[in-house]
Amino acid sequence: RELARLFDVSHMTMRKALSTLVADGLLIRRRASGTFVASPEVLARKRGARRYVHFIHVCEFGFFSEAAQGMSQELNRHGLALVLRDVGGWTFDQTNAFVDSLQGDDVAGVVIYPLLFSPNEMSALQRRMSQRGTPIVFIDLGGDAGVETVMNDNSLGVALGVRHLYALGHRRLG
Question: CA-CA distance, 13 to 51, in Å (whole number)?
């Protein structure tokens, strides 16, 4: 229940996600004790069998759960898994060190949304990852830092919402 609240998903969705991780051997369920992360040895063997995309995020932002669910579904269609890492409260150096630790054949890529660091810092981060051959994409970074970014089209969403409300007869919008 705590994880479901943290990630803003239903209890059933969280149970399904945990069951998938148990089936993949990444978590171990012990009756009357709880659910635990598998041993480092088991995790190392499993990593060789599957590739991961790391989603580095700050949970406080609006559409986080929808973005994570959509990415997870699409990655699963391609045989990849999503790993979430909330870096809320981290400094740039802490985040940078974590991203630098993401090495190896099991890392298929990194998605970062949205971090409160400068575009120049994000650009430097992208250059280092690119030199290592690890794809990295930013969501809603904005600015002109010369980095790969996917922008959320909020203005189109608002325009469609206003049109819909107007079509329903609402005339006082604002």
Answer: 22
